[in-house]
Amino acid sequence: MRHHLLIGVAIAGALSTLSMPGFAATADEAKALSEKAAAYIKQVGEEKAFADFTRPDGGFTQGELYVFCYDHDGVNKAHGANLAFVGKNLLHLKDPDGKEQNVEIVKVGFEQGQGWVDFKWPNPVTKKIQQKSAYVVRTDDVVCGVGYYKD
Q1: Which residues contact 84 (CB under 8 A, 6 or more apart)?
Q2: Does some domain include residue 94?
Q3: How many domains is the chain built from?
Q4: Is there a domain that residue 74 lies in?
Q5: Distance CA 139, CA 41 (A)
Q6: What is the CATH number of the domain that holds 115?
Q7: φ and ψ at 66, to 5 degrees?
């Protein structure tokens, strides 16, 4: 009986960890949220979608997952982790290794329609620079993405 109780407590603890906002996300979750964001733009239009993506309570922030969007020129249209980025041209922003990830994000999105881009970026949950992989999707005028942290 005691063994069953311990297993039940362990399972309940594991399940509660999954619903916590700080859980580590997966590639599938990042891709799903990115595709949800692209569909949302088509449904409600860019103005409302970008506002909702940028608001913490807009329905598009899940722990370390958040939506970001860029136009052809690299101007940030929405950013779920840093409102200060919105409206700024971040095309040539570099990660700690000197990689211009937004050049690649814009290129992959506009040339391929969707795909994965890897770079280093601060994790909003842990506050550490970590390896990130973002799934980006093009809608008409923008590329939006969501990334998960690999380490």
Answers
A1: none
A2: yes
A3: 1
A4: yes
A5: 8
A6: 3.30.450.20
A7: -155, 160
Per-residue model confidence as pLDDT tens digits over 23-36: 568 999 999 999 99
* Rounded (to 5) percent helix, strand, coil in the chain: 40, 30, 35
pLDDT by residue (tens digit) across 110-134? 999 999 999 999 988 889 999 999 9
Q: Would the pLDDT of 50 be above 80?
A: yes
Structural domain contains residue 11 = no
Domain ranges, residue 80? 22-149
Instruction: Name the nearest CA neighbour of 96 among 133, 125, 129.
Output: 129
pLDDT of residue 103: 98
Distance between CA 47 and CA 65 in Å, rounded? Answer: 21
In terms of Cβ atoms closer than 10 Å to its own Cβ (0-12, 13-18, 19+), residue 36 is: middle
Q: How far is CA 128 from CA 1, 53, 131, 149, 150, in A?
A: 43, 22, 10, 10, 12
Question: Tokens representing 146?
Answer: 């969501």
Q: Is residue 10 part of a domain?
A: no
